[in-house]
Design brief:
With about 170 residues, the protein is an alpha+beta fold. The chain is built from 3 helices and 5 strands.
């Protein structure tokens, strides 16, 4: 049987094509992952703003901050060193922002429907100690960020490390 006129790719041609595809993948994959990281950080900041807005609306309606706990938290896993914000009492955000527990006069909520964890599976923390402590002008609403560890301390005025949050004044 003759095989005249039948052509295929040579080994060199195949190696060149594979090398070009690998080079393009090496360039494009990190760019795509950076976009995913940016989107996760943007979502976390949007969530922090939503929690902050809900707490401010709660304050506007009731005339006071949630004062039955020192730390409010959302769904999700606790950060590795979450206790740096934790006071003597903690409670889930839904008690103040969705269920009005304990009952507060003038409560017009619910102020939030869901309390999802941050994009990395950890819970958001609202350090409410600042609301009720004498002379404390602010409090944090914060996520531990991608590494799951808080670098921001109670007395910091800007988020530290990869933490994502804001101060409520």
């Amino acid at each position: 049987m003759r095989t005249e006129g039948i052509r295929g790719f040579t080994l060199i041609e195949m190696v060149i094509v594979v090398a070009i595809v690998a080079l393009l993948a090496g360039i494009l994959v990190p760019v795509a992952f950076n976009q995913v990281d940016d989107a996760e950080q943007a979502r976390a900041m949007a969530d922090v703003r939503q929690i902050s807005s809900a707490l401010l609306l709660y304050r506007s309606d009731t005339g006071k901050w949630p004062a039955n706990a020192r730390m409010l938290y959302s769904d999700g896993n606790g950060a590795r060193n979450e206790t740096r914000f934790e006071g003597s009492r903690t409670e889930h955000m839904r008690l103040s922002l969705r269920e009005n527990t304990p009952a507060v006069a003038a409560w017009k909520g619910p102020y939030m429907a869901t309390f999802a964890p941050d994009p990395w599976g950890n819970r958001y923390v609202c350090e409410v100690y600042g609301f009720v402590a004498d002379g404390a002008p602010y409090a944090w609403v914060i996520s531990a960020g991608p590494d799951g560890t808080f670098q921001t301390g109670r007395n910091d005025t800007t988020p530290q490390g990869d933490d994502i949050g804001l101060i409520m004044k």
